[in-house]
Amino acid sequence: MHVVDESAIWPELTRTGTTIRVRVLADNGRTAEVQVEDCGVWARQGQIHHVPSSAVRLR
Description:
By secondary structure, this protein is mainly beta. It contains 1 helix and 5 strands. The protein has a 5-stranded antiparallel beta sheet. A hairpin with a 3-residue loop joins strand 2 (19-27) and strand 3 (31-36). The longest helix has 4 residues, at 6-9. The protein is globular, with a radius of gyration of 10 Å.
């Protein structure tokens, strides 16, 4: 299972957010395209976002 912190999606919201499960759709080593698998404070299931590849980690 891959996860990212919501702050990777919205850097301006570093004080809030949580760690969310994501499905990696694409990753070129620099930027990853991810689909949200559950809900966080701001992220909702099914949304697609681009985050730094370094923000995606296995749990």
